[in-house]
Amino acid sequence: MGVTLKDVAEAAGVSITAVSKVLHGSGKSVRIAKETETAIREAAHRLQYVPNSVARSLRTSRTRTIGLVFENFGSLSEGPMYYVLMLDGVAQELFRNHYRLTILAEVSHKHVGGALSDGRMDGAIWCKLPMEEEVLTQLAQSRIPVVALNTEAPTNPLLTYVSCDNEGGARLVVEHFYALGHRRVLYVMETGEDDTPDATARLRGFRRACQEACLPFTEDDIVFWDRDASQFADWWRSGPPHTGVFAWNERVAGAVLRRAHESGVHVPGDLSVVGFDSTPFCETTSPPLTAVRQPILEMAKHAARILFESLDNGPDEPRVFTYPCTLDVRGSTAPTSMVRRTRRKPVETSNGPVLDAERGNP
After folding, report:
1. Are residues 348 and 212 in the same domain?
2. Quick one: the chain helix, strand, coil %, rounded to 5?
3. Are 228 and 256 contained in the same domain?
4. Of 102 and 245, more confident
5. How many domains does the chain divide into?
6. What is the mean pLDDT of residues 199-219?
7. Are residues 137 and 202 in the same domain?
8. What's the pLDDT score for residue 270?
C-alpha cells in the first residue's frame, strides 16, 4: 500500500481535510495557516507521498486523459512531419494542463459512443473524422466532448470542427501551375485514402479551380498510387500529357520526387511537382518541394484548447474554425518554358512500343 492522506495527516499532526486542501486544492472554504501548510508539505516529502490517480478520478469524475483518434496512422520515421506537428500541438496543451494522451488507432464506427464513453477518457479529438452520418450522430450524443480536427464541417455540424481551407489550398496550386504555363496537371491520391475528408476536399477544390480556369480535367487526371508512388515509372513511360503533378500530401509528393529521380525524370525541368502540408520535410527533398502550407501545430493546439473549454464550462454550441492556407514555392516547380522534352506518345513498331526520338528523353 502506498502512503495515504491519513499517513501524511498523522505525520504532520493535522486533519485529513487540511492535507487534502494543501496537496489537492480541495475544500475552498478551508483556511490553512502558513506554518501548517509548510508542515504538511514537509511530511508529504518525507513520506514520499504520491497522489492516488484512481482515487482522485473517483472523487472528481475526471480521468485526466484525452483520447486522440487517428485511423490509418502512418509512420513517424518516414520523414514527412504532419503527424509529428499534430501530436506536438495536442500534447503541448494536454501536458501543460497535466492531462495524459491516449492514441486510438481505430474505433468501431457502429459503436462509437461506447468506445469513447467507457470511462477511460474525459474527451477526445478525432483527426480526419469520417463523414458517416451514423458516426456523427453517435458522437453528438456522446457523454464526453469530441472535437473534429482537420475535417471539413458539414452544412449543419453537430460537433465543433477545426481544419484548414483544403479547397482554398488546392485553388492556390491551380493558380500557381496556371501562372507557370501548365495546362494539364495530374492529381495523385493515395490508395486507401479515397474517402479521407481532407484528401477528397483537396480533390474537389482542385477540380473546381481547374474548371473555373478552363483547364481540362477528367477522370484520367486522377490516379490512385501507393504511398511509395511505385506506379510512377509506368505512368511516365505511357507518355502522359501532364506537365505537373499535385500530390494530395507531402509524403506522396516526396515519393513522386524519388521515383522521378530513379526514372531519370528531371524535376522541374521535365515535370513540376506540388504537395500539401509544407512542413520542414519539404526543405529536405531534392529539389525542395513546393507545397501548400496548413498551420498544423496551431490547429492541433486550438482543438485541444476547445476541448478543455468544454470540460470546464460544459457543452457548447457546435462551432467551425477554418484556417487559411498559403503556398510555399520552392524548387520543384518551374515555368513550362523550362520543359526540355517534346511530349509524344510511344510509337508502335514491329518490336513493340518505343519512345519517339523527338521526345529527347528515352
Report:
1. yes
2. 40, 15, 45
3. yes
4. 245
5. 3
6. 93
7. no
8. 96
